[in-house]
Amino acid sequence: MGRAHLETILFVDDDPELREIVAAALTKPGYVIVTAPDAYEAVRILAYNRVSLLITDIKMPGVNGFELARQARALRPNIQIIYLSGYPIDNPYGGAVLKKPLRMGDLLAEISGRRF
Q: Is the peptide bond between 101 and the residue preceding it cis, with omega within 30 degrees of 0?
């Protein structure tokens, strides 16, 4: 059974290799993947594209993932968010925080459990 339309996922991380790996892994199940190296580019993408899910690193140069999530929700109130962190962190905003190094199985399980 196919999807009525492909869901768009925005993946934001300052590591170009990780962006490439995640984009390849998430394209296979049929998602449309857009990547950004930082929050500034991510906000530009969010302003002009329908994005269902934001996956963002928390610790990035400039604007961090929590602030990006706040801005994303201002632009797209129904957007779902998954945070990534290489450090133990309390998430004051709620939602999933996946540990880095990221395991694709964990990410795919977290995504597949969501309703878009």
A: yes
Q: State the maximum Cα–Cα separation within the chain, in Å, rounded to a whole number.
A: 42
Residue 7 DSSP code: P
Residues 7, 52 contacting (CB under 8 angstroms):
yes
Query: DSSP state, 95?
Result: S
- Residue 70 phi, psi dihedral angles, 5° rounding: -60, -45
As to burial, measured by CB atoms within 10 angstroms (0-12 exposed, 13-18 middle, 19+ buried), residue 21 is middle
Q: If residue 40 lies in a helix (H) or strand (E), which one and from where to where?
A: helix 39-48
| pLDDT score at 31 | 94
Cα→Cα distances 98→21, 41, 82, 91, Å: 16, 22, 7, 11
For 31, residues 6+ apart whose C-beta sits below 8 A from its C-beta are 6, 7, 8, 9, 111
Low-confidence ranges of the chain (pLDDT < 70): 1-5
How are strands ordered across the β-sheet holding 32-36?
A: 32-36, 8-12, 53-57, 80-85, 96-99
